[in-house]
Amino acid sequence: MQTLSSHISRGARRRNLVLIVVALAATTLGLAAQGASAHAKQAGYGWPVKPFDRPHPIRGSFGDPRTVFTAPPTMDGVMHGGGGFSFHFGVDISAPDGTNVYPVVSGTVTQVTREWVGVDSGSGRSFQYWHIHSLVRAGERVEADKTVLGTIVRGAQHVHFTELENGHAVNPLQRDHLTPYADTTKPEVEAISFRRTDTGPDLMPNFVRGRLLLIAEAYDTPEMRVPGEWAAMPVAPALVTWRIQGLGGRAVVPETVAVDFRSTIPANGAFWSYYARGTYQNMSVFAQHYSYRQPGCFLFKLTRAPFDTRRLKDGVYDLVVTVKDIRGNQSSQSRRFTVHNRAGWVAS
User: What is the dihedral of CA 301, 255, 182, 333, to 10 degrees?
Assistant: First the structure.
């Protein structure tokens, strides 16, 4: 009789391979690069699975952390371990295994691999469809909503969909792209913390001085319920901003953008400049361990370099973090902290 552990073990090996392939592909292809055309105007297009004119559940969002650790599943492994780390360079659209996948815009097939099919639609615009068993060949002309590019492979339960503008990945959920798409849920800030270094412990906010890392833990919830084992898994917010204000509410450091996935994503080499150590993806891989049904931990650095508290007068302040999704739904959270850079331990 099959045991649950053996079933999970075989499933884990398949999912581990998928995670590793996607992480390595994102790094190798260099799709997530700065400088994409953030406001290029293109006609919207439908979904790559039927029905084309209705939204489908999104289980993985643009900019989500993708992590495959070579370290074991320990806090030391999370904080110091190596591996493959990348920004999710598309969206994961939930659909049953075997589902037909169609091009969203007509074009010419440029690449066919065991994992994905690429279609060039002209004018610098191209698309990739991952985790499908291909039914087309390179050089073939394909028609939107008509040609079957392939079928979702066994165990994937989704098609990863990437849009590229002049070779750079762009967010397919922005307006005038994948449509129809609506989102009424709002992302939330779970926690705000302070560290001396990226791998250091959290500091008490009652007494901080010198240079600090400002970190926010934040999540968004998919608009549509995701079926199967990825149900209730979070996705990354599209925008994270912050400000520092005095107790009277007056801003002493103005609203500042920390992370912005609304149009494009940074290069993968900058992963740990935007995400803080302690971050790992949903169902992350740690060496031989697959974190089955375990949600991830998304920690965002609010600045690329440590914030110098000597910019502020000694005193009490509120760090306010605001998160937004691709449709502008938002929420904020604050954390009070005390700056004391003068000699001595007692603030006046």
Answer: 70
**How far apart, in whole angstroms, are the C-alpha atoms of residue 4 and residue 9?**
8
Name 239's bridge partners: 260, 324
Does the pLDDT value for residue 91 go beyond 90? yes
For residue range 42-86, list pLDDT tens digits in order.
569 999 999 999 999 999 999 999 999 999 999 999 999 999 999
For the chain, the straight-line distance linking the first and the last C-alpha, in angstroms and rounded, comes to 70
Main-chain dihedrals φ then ψ at residue 183, nearest 5 degrees: -150, 120
**Which residues make Cβ contacts (< 8 Å) with residue 332, sequence separation at least 6?**
189, 320, 321, 322, 323
